[in-house]
Amino acid sequence: MKHYAITGNMGSGKSTVCMIFEQLGISVFYADQQAHKAYELPHIKAQLINLFGEEIYQPDNQINKAMLAALIFNDPEKLQSVNQLIHPQVYIMYEQWKQQKFSNPYTLYEAAILFESGLPHTFHAVILVTAPEELRLQRVMKYRKLSKTQALARMHQQWPEEKKIPLSNYIIRNDETQLLMPQILKLHQALIKA
Questions:
Q1: Rounded to whole angstroms, what are the CA distances from 51 to 67, 77, 164?
Q2: How far is residue 75's CA from residue 93's CA, in Å, rounded to a whole number?
Q3: Which residues contact 39 (CB under 8 A, 6 or more apart)?
Q4: CB 79 within 8 A of CB 73
């Protein structure tokens, strides 16, 4: 079985694309969702408390997302420290997930910062979902309820699309000028045959 990665900058619509692949019967590992589970692991929790103090966790033992975002999205060193804790743990979770018996012809690993994490070489190919920055900004502000400043701070922590496009094997354009479904169906057929 082949394992493909799917990525795209914040607001590109990669989650929507992944949901369509799931409707086609493809299993998807959502790295960003698994990262939230990683925050609950005792060894990760201890290191984050060591970095940021007890208040980084709420009384219910959940990570204080607003506080963490405020701390890391304006400080590249802190962001890198958190990424170095979380991303290796998420990849371990992915390796465990891959051990399941899948009936579909391939799987997808969905991650926003795939290239930034240095992971593309571990997959058979990389799919990039693209959209113009202004459209991505509008989506991020609307769906994540962020101000323009907050949205841009997060978006600019990711590599620009121009850097990711030549490193990707397949491109899905989610720019509202092309229909998504025909692109996904065509790619699905190509991945089955690959």
A1: 13, 11, 31
A2: 27
A3: 45, 48, 62, 63, 86
A4: yes
Q: Which two tokens stand for residue 179?
A: 């229909």
Q: How far apart are CA 186 and CA 174, in angstroms?
A: 15
Matching CATH number, 2-193, of 3.40.605.10, 3.40.50.2000, 3.40.50.1000, 3.40.50.300: 3.40.50.300
Provide the residue ranges of all domains of the chain, joining segments of one domain with +: 2-193
Successive 10-residue mean pLDDT values, the chain, 194 residues? 96 96 96 92 95 94 91 89 92 93 91 89 95 96 93 92 97 95 98 94
Torsion (CA) 136, 139, 140, 144 in degrees, nearest 10: -170
Determine the Cα–Cα distance for residues 33 and 130; give it in Å rounded to an integer. Answer: 21
pTM: 0.90
Q: Give the integer Cα–Cα distance in Å for 133 and 11.
A: 8
DSSP states of 6-30 as a string? Answer: EE--TTS-HHHHHHHHHHTT-EEEE
Q: How far, in Å, CA of 63 to CA of 48, rounded? A: 9
CA distance 111 to 30: 7
